[in-house]
Amino acid sequence: MTEQINSDYEVSSEGAVRHWEIPYARLEDATPTATNPAAVIDDAAAPGTGLQLTGTILTVDATDSIAIIDFTASMVYLQAVRTVNTYAGEAESAWGIIYVGSPVYYDRSATMPAGVYLSLAAADNLAVANPLFGFVVPANETDTFGKAAGVAGNTWDCAVMQVGAGN
After folding, report:
1. Residue 55 lies in a domain
2. Structural domain containing residue 152
3. Is the domain of 91 the same as that of 142?
4. Maximum Cα–Cα distance for the chain, whole Å?
5. pLDDT tens per residue, range 61-83
6. CA-CA-CA-CA torsion for 71, 123, 48, 75, nearest 10 degrees?
7. pLDDT tens, 21-53?
8. Contact, 143 vs 156, CB < 8 A?
9. Got the DSSP string for 6-39?
10. pTM to 2 decimal places
11. What gap in Å lies between CA 124 and CA 109, rounded to an integer?
């Protein structure tokens, strides 16, 4: 008996792409910028539970105050990730090394550098749970790990596979 490949169906390696319009007022950062991470405010669950819808901003419409955000699960984008692990009040107090598979959180701490929204910290500077944004993956075959924390923390550009809206 010979094996044969059936050709009467289609398959795709891509899941459903999820791009949705979200009003600025529903975002953690009410002045969004294209390519930045985003977290949607959910009055019932957030902040503080670590359960928030997160994704990457594709475009912004300043006239209508709407951002189009990619919430596709497992989509990979290059993002700035801070190596902070924990805070002591308003200050960063401990840093970690970024490895493949490191969890990355949408960090709303006031101490984050301008334009940086992601870190290794599961809780912000007020000890409130940060929402899980995704996981670090290799950006290409020459990407090296661990990305050092340094003496007072570093920010690295990392490929992050976002959790998004789930499967």
Report:
1. yes
2. 76-162
3. yes
4. 70
5. 999 999 999 999 999 999 999 99
6. 10
7. 999 999 999 899 999 999 998 776 545 666 789
8. no
9. --SS---S-----EEEEEGGGBSSSS--TTSEEE
10. 0.86
11. 5
